[in-house]
Structure formats: C-alpha cells, structure tokens
C-alpha cells in the first residue's frame, strides 16, 4: 500500500489534562466488537462515512467537529461499537468526562472484559475525582491482562495523586518492562520523581519520553517546570513554547508566565496568565499570580478584578492566598467608597514597567508574540537594508496595522530621525483617499518612532501589488488605464497636502486591493534619508536579485530606486518635485504596456562590493540621463514618452494634466468617463479592507463585524459579502458560508472569484454537482481564470474522474505554463490512471522549474515503483529525503521499495524513521508489522498492527493481519473479534472476512455458529469452494451425515484438480458416511 496522499496533515493525539497538572492517560484505543443486528446496508455505509470523517477530524485535534459527525453516526447506528468507542475518546478530549464515562459503560455492556475499555474508564473516573472506582477498574484490567502496560501507568497515576509516589514509580517501571517505547510511562515517572524532589532524574525521564515521542506536549511542559525549579528560567521558556506549539494547555501557559515573572518580563507574563485563564477560567493559581503581577506594575483596578475572580474560583488548599486577596480587596473597596476611584485609575494607566516598551527587531518574530502592551506581532512583512515593517494586531483598536520604521543605524542619525517624525506628522494629517495607503498615527516604542499604516490584504491570485500583477497577471490596456488614472488621483491628493515628492515610485509601492483599485504606499518616507549625514558613499538595497531603494551622497545626493529614477534624482534629489515622480511613473506605465519589461536595465551587482554597487548606479544614471526607451506599439506610448523626457520642463507639469489625457484615451475605448468613487463606496471598501486584514490574522468575529459595517454603507458590496462567506468557511460553518456566497452572487453575478469560492465550499461539503456548476460559471465568465480551472480539476480528482481533471489542468497550464501545482496534479492524475510515462513527463517539467520540489521526487518514485523499476524508485525517494529529511511519506515509500529489493532491515529503518516523524502513520505501522510477521515475530507484529488500527480504524489490511497473528498465537477468540470488526466496517458482503470468521468459530468448536457463517458466505457466493469444504467438515462433526455428503459433493464439483489432499479427504468422508 503506497502513500500517495498530498498535503495530508496528521497530528498525534494529545490527551488533555486537568488544571492541577495531574493527568491520567487513556489506554490503547478501544477495540470494536461485532453487532448482532445490522442496519440496512446504505445506512451502515453512511454511518461509516461519518465515522471516517470523525476519525480524520479527531486526528487533526478538531474534537468538537468530530463529535458532531459521531452524533449523526449514532443516530443512524446507535449500537455500533465503533461509534461509541470514538465518541468516548472525543468526549474525553473535550473534558466531558461524565458523558465519556457513559459511553464506556455502554461499551462494557458489549464487552465486559476488554482491558482497554476498563483502563479508559479509569481515566474518566480519575478526572472526575473518583479515585477508588478508577483504581478498581485498573485492577480489573490488570487481572484480565497482567501485561497491559497502559493499565500500570494509569494505576501509577492514581497512586501518585494519593501521594504514594514510591509505589507509583514501581508501577511505571513495570509498564516500561512490558513496553520500553511507552513515552507516557517515562513522562509519568518523571512527574513522580519531580514530586519526590529528584529533579535530575525527572529530566532524564522527560528526555526519554521526548526521544520516543517528540510530540509529547506534557513532557516538554514538565521539563520546563524542572528548569524553573532549578532556577534556569530563560532556558525553560523554549520547552514551554514547544509544548504550546503542540497543544495549548493551562499548565504550559501558567508555567511560562512564572518563568517570565522571574525574568522581570511582566507584560509577557500577564499575557500568558490571561491565556491560561481563557482556557480554564477557574484556574485559581493563575488568577492569584496574575493579580500579584498587576499590583507590581501598578494595574490596581485589573488586580481587583483578578483577585475577585480568584476568590470566586473556590480555591482549594490556598488559605494564605485567600487571606491576602480578601484583605487587599477590602482596602481597595474602601478607597473606591471614599471617592478615590479616579486616583486608582490614574495609577493603573501611568505606572507601566519598562519591559512593556520592547519591540522585536529580528525578522524571526513568531506569530502572535506581543510587541508591546498595545500590539501583537503577526509577522515581519519586510526586513530590508533601510527599513522594517511589522504586521500587527492592536487589542485596543481591534484593528490590523502595518508598523513601519527605519533600521536602527538610520534612526540613530538625528537628522533622519527628525525628518522621519516630521514626515510622519504630515502623512497622518492627510485626509483619507481611496487610492492612498492610509497613515493612521505615529507611535514610539522604546523611544523608537513608528508609523502605523493601513494593511492591504492580498486578493485573488494571492497578489496585492502591481509588481505581482506584472509578473503573474499583466494588465490589459483598459486595466492599465484605470490603474494609471487612479494613481494620478492619488498623487494629486498627496501633493496637495504637503508632500513635495514621493521619491520611491515603483510597482512594489503601488498596492492593489481585493477590489482591484490601487493604493500608493510609502508616500515620501524615503525622503527622510536625505538628512542622513552619518555616512558618505553609496548604499543599495539588494534582495533576491532585485535592487530596490538606493542612497548616495557623494558629489550631491541621490535617492530612489535606480531603475525608476529620473536623471535629476541621481545628483540632486533634494530639489526633486512632482515632475520627478511623473518620470518614475512613466517607467511604471512602460512596464504596464510591455508586460513588465523595464525600459532601462543594467546587470545587477555581481557581489556585495562597493565597486559593483557603484557600477550599477553609474550605468543606470547614464541610461536614465541619455537614452530614450525602446518604442512600443501600445496607445500608452505617447504618454510614456512625454513622462520620460530628460528635461523636467519637457514632461507633464502635473499629474492632473497626465490624468486628463489618460481619461480621454480611456473614454475613446469604453465610451464612458472615469468616475471616482463616492463617499459611501469609500467607507464600504475601507471597512471591507479592514475586515480582510482581521480575517488574515484569523480574528474572524472582529472581521465579520467589519464586513457588517461595510454592508451598512453599501448592502450590495459583493466583496464584503464574499469575505464574510470566507470567514464562515474558515470557521467550517459551510452552510452559513453558502448562504453568504449566494448573497455575493446576487450582488455581483459576473465575478468569477465568488463562483470559485462557492464551488470550493461545495467541494469540501462533497456536493460535487453544485461545485461543478460553480466552477463552470467561473470559467465561462473568465476563460483565463486559472484558479477556477485548477479547483475544478481538484474537484474532478476528488471523485476520481482523472481524465476530466487532466483537461482542467491543461487549461491552467495554457494560462500559466509554470504553474507547479497544476503540473503536479496532472502528473498525479496520470499516475492514478496508470499512464506512468506521461506522469513522469509532468514531474520532469516540475523539476525543470524547481529541482528541489520534494513532492515531485516522491511521486516520480511512485511511478518507477509501479513500473517495477525499484532502483530508479529508490533513487527518487532518496533524493526527496535529501531535500526534505522530515518527509514521512518518502521514508515510508523508500521502505516499501527496499522491501521489494529484499533489503528488509533497511526497510525497517525507513518505516521507523517515518513513524518518528509521524507516530500516527498507519501504513508505516502496518508494513513494519508485516516484516515482523514474515520473520515469525508475531507479538511484535501484533503490537504494530494494533498501532496501525489505532491510527486508522478503517485499515482493513491491518485487521486481517492482526487476525493472522492472533491465529498463529492460538488466540482464536481475539482473531474472531478482528473478523467481526472487518464485517462491521465493510458490511455483510465481505466474504473473505465472513469465511475467516466461520473458520475461527470452527477452531473454537462453536460448530453451529460456524455452519451458519459458512452458509452466509454461500448465500453471497454460491461457488465459494472452501466455504463448501469447511461447511462439509463442520456438518460431519455435528453428525449431519446427509448435509455433509451434499456439501462435500458440491465441493468436489467445483474444486480445481491441484488440491489433491482436500479432494482425497472429501471422497474418503463421502465413502465412510455412505456406509454409516
């Protein structure tokens, strides 16, 4: 079984823990048992589709959603063991322990001697504080199976909670003697050692747990806590971060907050106490500590609230803290009563620790780290030679901003700093305009000035700048004219409100929003560099092969992007004016008219030397000063030519003059005058963009409020309607999303992007007819809409119509021949239809575009494997792993290939590597088990098949192989259970499983049941040779002579002659029975 899934995200199952850091671990996932009565086949299939969906969601940690599907499955098939067992686990994860307990009670009625169920029930009881009952269940489990390691772990946890760490440790050792790879046993052992004061040994146990399972969030948290105990507070934080990356828990947030307090980082500490309380509002320890820190930094009003919540949480064993909180609140309330509330509030706002004013200057800022008390960093948008931009969220304003500033070395220059602050003051006073990125305010953080500007979210095709459109979606003449006119309007507005010159006009500074209107970015900020006196020479911003902003103050001063600079900008930038910007925009228009080509180019710097920078600068200076651009056939060329005159006096004097001529040209093509946006449209679009920024940062509720505001100004704002639908989609509220897509369609039925989004939602809902209708509409409206064709192809792939999918991907590749995902999906579709040579051609195309595309190497290997060219396959999988060592699928596929080459030990290493990356990789567990099975290591194989089934309960091969192990070990009852589970999963029509069940019943001497089972096989397949043979043997054993003879004769009429032994036996028994 090959792994050819794409972008499949698997997560390990993490058991939730209670706020007191004490945890009981459920045992191995509950087994399933056969039903005595089966519902109709269609209902059973629906039930298993729902269970399968729930299992997928459970693996992704989406337990609430999984529960919805399990409830639906329960309505269809209320007696299903699989529904109950999965529902019990999901309810446990959701901390609904009483409901989980009820499920386990129902499971025990079906299988009262199942050790896993008893162990899991103990977990629920412990979390409900019913320790004696939990202990009883663990003892029952161990009586049934003295080698059930999970039961020892859970029993140890119960004893640890009772303070008996010595006996708990002996139970953990017992568990590890049974299963040395049981990470939870090491974790629990570490916790008991930690509680006993043996910190060093505890850390060793946590390290061992993490070596076995790098996704054990509790082990990271517990190790971090040990570091705290040892006083290594800074060193502890990465362990808490890793724990939180895997699972957001109260303990990790609380323990990290304690580290931060010891490091005097109070603002961050308060943030983490808040996170702990969000998860568990009654976490007494977090509430009390939070109040203490709020007092330390002067936030007395906040402290009052935290102390009150602490007292309301009914804290246990915290009498001293209760006394402190009660006394402080009495004093506080007395102050309020005496009219001192104003003073208290003043203190709360004026006393702030210095550490609140720290901003991260490294580009490696993690998502949602706090910059200050005010802002939350999402990511660094840009970190260049001159400046740095942060995408942030403001809790105070519930808004998304881009915080911009210069790099430290420039702000240390008094002239640049002064000029930047003055420029910021001008920009923030400029009235809003639809074609200008809005500047909201200037803020100082650690005495460093920042300007907060509007965030322009990416639109369709994942683009949000003219630079991107020129690369991937070059505008036609009409679109170019519209954008050029909008740019002129924006520049007129800027220049009429105190801006003398932009200095840095280029496609990357012309942003384009979802509504396809432009916004001028970074207005005049670059001009601050003209005051930079701490440096003499030339400084270039050179990133990813592109030269951006440059500054030179030798023989005059030059400032701008050299490929867009007017001649005067190279020598006397201080004297530049509107006509300078007109020249730069002329180059931008040239690119719009020529599909991105620059009129003047020079070889980019070959290295970082001053000589290469100077060469580049001087070459562009000469070209911009003396050369005219290559002539274009575009109607825009006469306007471009005038913009690019070398003498400023020969250019357009003002953007208004250029705009009026462009508007005349546009009207000659469209017959209509260009109409600027009205105020209501501007308001509506601003709220739409505001909401889109919030949605990009996953603040969906706030985003939808913004879209509602936009719709108040314009109820037919299709963009706001579509974005609100997308929010519901992101929240997986698909029915609500469809409703809002319908509204967006009504507002703008000609927008292909709305049809595409709606189609994708239907595809996710598996409503494929509706999805295809949407994609067809999108592609008819815009035959060059690559995204619509691509998603339509994906939808065809989903229903396994690969040839139709290939046709769609061909359409994508006609539009964009370098669309890697379209090449990949086309190759995968060819591979799945068995056309391997064409698939290999597709993968070759990908590797020409990107030789390091590891997924392509993996799929290429699958093709060679399917062609039985194992050596070539092995080379491909090895290459994929060189590029991406953590590529679990390639490790698995390499193992499968090595197995076929007879290199079993190396194959085993590959499966183990895959499982190290993804411990829930069902196929890897299965194939690892097959190796053990084939070498007679049945117990080891059995363990692997159990792990495979736990990861994927629908993996039929694992159930069959597990049954084979159990049969070889003489455990027929357990093997029978496996076959019953297969029958339940695959309905009554799985004759192989039913036949095997009959054979197990025969081995157990349950002969009448065996006979009925073989008869069931023959009802489904009257020519099943071996069902007739085994039925005859069973009937012989129960002395039904006539029936036995008839069955043997039927067997003899069907059996091929090579089965001599069985034929001889059947003939002999017929003779003997005839004599009786």
Automatic annotation (TrEMBL):
InterPro entries: Kinase-like_dom_sf, Prot_kinase_dom, TPR-like_helical_dom_sf, TPR_rpt, Ycf3/AcsC/BcsC/TPR_MFPF
Residue intervals of the Protein kinase domain: 375-666
PROSITE patterns for the chain: PROTEIN_KINASE_DOM, TPR, TPR_REGION
Pfam family, one: TPR_9
UniProt keyword list: Repeat, TPR repeat
GO MF, one example: ATP binding
Superkingdom as given in the UniProt entry: Bacteria
TPR repeats: 115-148, 149-182, 183-216, 250-283, 684-717, 718-751, 752-785, 786-819, 820-853, 854-887, 888-921, 922-955, 991-1024
PANTHER family noted in UniProt: CELLULOSE SYNTHASE OPERON PROTEIN C (PTHR44943), TPR REPEAT-CONTAINING PROTEIN MJ0798 (PTHR44943:SF4)
Protein known as: Protein kinase domain-containing protein
Organism (species): Candidatus Fischerbacteria bacterium RBG_13_37_8
The organism's taxonomic lineage, starting at the top: Bacteria, Candidatus Fischeribacteriota
